[in-house]
Structures are given as structure tokens and as C-alpha cells.
Amino acid sequence: MIFNTHQFKEPLVSYVESMFHFKGFMPDHSIERVIPTGHVFVIFELDGIRRHTFDNKTLEPIASFEKVWVSGVHENYLSISAHPNSEMFVFQFKSYGALPFVHTLICELNDRVIPAEEVFGHEILVLHEAFKTAETSEDKFLIGEKWLEGRFDKNLMPPAELIDFLSELQKQPVVKYQEVIEQYPNTQKHLIDQFKKYIGLTPKYYQRMLRFNDILQKIQQKQHINWPDVAFQCGYSDQSHFIKEFRHFSGFNPTEFIKREFQNDEPNFFALDK
Length: 274
Prior knowledge:
Oligomer: single chain
Strand content: 15-25%
Distance between the termini: 20 Å
CATH superfamily of the largest domain: Jelly Rolls
Radius of gyration: 19 Å
CATH architecture of the largest domain: Sandwich
Largest sheet: 6 strands, antiparallel
Shape: globular
């Protein structure tokens, strides 16, 4: 399997989390659950395989996608298809970084997976064809970087105080949430409006998402887990609140999660039919 990533320079490195290309992926499952992380993705299929999203409860297909699509910020988990011999190219934007490229309020993309031409127009299909034609990962990265540079609108850059606030929120434990909020130089309403514009979520919900992803990191590859300790370390007020949040973001309670050995998978992707 080929899996390559690209290293950016300024200004792109400040806004794009990752650009990667993989080929020859051979999953041992056909449906996987994606845990929300607060990122916007632009996803190109280069193998001619149509992808699907599924109803989270019934796992019946609800939508299909081909060529290229945008996955906005999701508040809940998403169920998607996985295919053998996959080849894909992906842009992943930083949590505050998508707006200068998509030119659309990020909250308008919340909980949506849509054909990319609805956001970028015909140019994204031209880019898709260029990726298919380019022979190597490096060739594709050069094409992708040039496209990103052409899309970048400096007038849509997030303000420095928002980036500083977000950085502090990511570093501090949940119990210091109110202290971090009070450090923001404008009103809480202003902060919420800025979050919806650039990040898609409210600060409080984004913090909940960060906390759950921290849990996944803490339990990864562990076979014996003391759940009350994990709940306490992550700042949950009680065990019932912890279990409710765990089910909200993953679809499983902690016991079910470990029984199915999801802690041995990638932190944000769980195979549902392995």
C-alpha cells in the first residue's frame, strides 16, 4: 500500500492540517464509523469506486458519492463505506482553517457530506481529473498545493484572537473551560459567532468533542481500562454523564466499545463489520 503525506510551508501550513494520497488500501471491513474531530475534508476518489454513507442505526445506504465531495464538521459520528483497492486524495483543513478556501461559512456545511462542485463549482472536477492523470504522489501534491494557493483568500483568514483562544482551549483541561472563556477579549456572543463562522460549532460543543477524542487517545491499545479513572481524568462530573457522552459521540457505551475491541483500531475509525 502507498500512503504519502505532504509538508506545507506558510501560509498553507497554518490552515491545512494534512494533504495525503493513498493507493492499494485493503480494508478487512466494508463499513466504518468515523468519530467527529472538528475538521472539514475535501475527498477525491481516484479509483472509480462509488462511496456511500449509511444510516447510523440501520446501516442502510442513504447517499452515494463519486469523484470528489466535501465532508463538513459533524456533531455526531458518521458511517461510511470502505472498499478494497482504494485510491484516494484528501485535503484535511485545520479546525479554523477551511473558510479561506471554501469561501462558505463553515456552519453551513455542518453535518453534511455533499458533492464538492456545490462548494467549488466545476473547477473541482478539473482538479479531480488532474489528480487522476498525475502519476506519482509528489505530482499530485504539487497540483494540490497550487490549487490551494489559488483558492486562498486572505480576507477570510480567522482573527488572531480566535486562533489564540482555540489553542488555549485545546491545551487546557475541561475544568478550566470557564477560565479560558473569560480570557477572550470580546463578548461571549462574539466568540460564538466567530466559532460558527470559522469552526462550525459553539465553543462548548467543540470542547466536548475535544474531550471525547482525548478519551480515545487515552484508551487506545489498552486491554484493561478503569473507566471511573478515565472519566475523572477527563473532567466528567459523574459516571452517567461520562457514559452518555461516550454513546453520543461513538454510538456505543464503554463496555460495548471494549467488547468489540474498537480501542485497537485507529482512534477515529472503527470497523463495524470486521
